[in-house]
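Worked problem 6 (solution included).
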Amino acid sequence: MTPSQEARERTAEQIEAARKLFAGPCDFVAGAGSLESLIPIALPEVAFAGRSNVGKSSLVNALTGRRTLARTSSSPGHTRQINFFDLGGRLFLVDLPGYGFAQVSRSMKETWQDLASAYLRGRPTLKRVCLLIDARHGVKDSDRETMKNLDAAAVSYQVVLTKADHLKAAAIPKAVAAAEAVARKHGAAHPKVLPTSSQTGFGIAELRAEIADVATR
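Solution. The predicted structure is:
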């Protein structure tokens, strides 16, 4: 299903309500480098997870219409803590450290992984995880491992393909179908995969509506 088809399934009111929500105030609240420094539970939360350099920070910026809300870098492993952003006092957007090929020490990777795992298992206000996967490369082994961990933690998650602008238009449905085939094998995964591009805005309105819907139920 393409973003335009998805948009037709949603009402104009839902799309507009999501646009207004993400166009409102969005402020960095805190960065947590340890379990003890996590902010108190308060608002519904939607987290963004994915391999290093998959485009998590860029997607957060695109969703909120800001260029520098979440810091981006071409160097893998730039996000080294759990970053919380308050979206209009309605929900927290949570940018998790990337996994995969970040060029840091093994002990640092293990520290990030342990922190992310503790966060995912211990936040009753966590409504959904957006699991970001590069549309050009598809689901990697490290993504599959993360999906297994999310299944085990009983955390609802949805696969979001990033960098779809790097694919030809005809290749996007194929990438979506391949990712959906993997998602169907995981109990905690949402069956619908959303393709997006932070550069062109492709699929951003649909992802906003999805997040707004799940976070405000």
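Discussion: The CA atoms of residues 131 and 159 lie 5 Å apart.
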